[in-house]
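Hi V.,

Quick status before I head out on leave. The structure for the redesign project is tokenized and pasted below; the design run finished overnight.
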């Protein structure tokens, strides 16, 4: 076996949990967008998602206070905007305006959907027990939207330090769940 030791600081890139998402929040009439890749499914029905948002991020305080957001799933065509959103702060700029993204009204939360994304998940925080120690929010998806024209488009997955993987090929294999 020709394996070698791997730096612990790079393990994240091996276990990357899913597509990069754009989290939208709103407080006092001001909408914000944050790029997020640290999330995981926790339950099927109702859908429950866990996500880590640094307490240094503008979104952290908004989500902690409002307890609601939208997880917007962008496709590959939005990759440059996704990175640009992630490299800027909503404390300083209006990201919707600067990056040419369109707000669409949600039905269950005040935070807006991003119209250009292939799917949107309206979420409410249902558990904050791990926020103080781990910055880990547990969200319940209350409403999900999908653009049928874009549902099979490739998504991007963060591998760390500005590196992304593109997902898009679908395999159908035998499953006990049919």
């Amino acid at each position: 076996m020709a394996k070698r030791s791997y730096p612990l600081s790079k393990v994240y890139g091996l276990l990357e949990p899913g597509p990069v998402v754009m989290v939208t929040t709103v407080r006092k009439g001001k909408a914000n967008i944050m790029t997020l890749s640290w999330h995981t499914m926790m339950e099927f029905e109702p859908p429950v998602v866990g996500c880590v948002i640094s307490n240094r991020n503008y979104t952290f305080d908004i989500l902690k206070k409002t307890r609601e957001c939208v997880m917007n799933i962008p496709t590959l065509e939005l990759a440059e905007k996704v990175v640009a959103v992630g490299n800027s702060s909503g404390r300083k700029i209006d990201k919707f305006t600067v990056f040419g993204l369109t707000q669409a009204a949600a039905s269950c939360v005040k935070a807006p959907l991003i119209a250009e994304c292939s799917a949107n998940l309206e979420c409410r925080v249902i558990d904050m027990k791990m926020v103080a120690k781990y910055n880990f929010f547990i969200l319940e998806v209350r409403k999900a939207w999908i653009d049928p024209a874009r549902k099979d488009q490739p998504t991007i997955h963060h591998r760390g330090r500005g590196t992304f993987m593109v997902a898009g090929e679908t395999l159908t294999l035998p499953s006990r769940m049919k």
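Above is the designed sequence. The mean pLDDT is 92.

G. will cover questions while I'm gone.

Best,
W.
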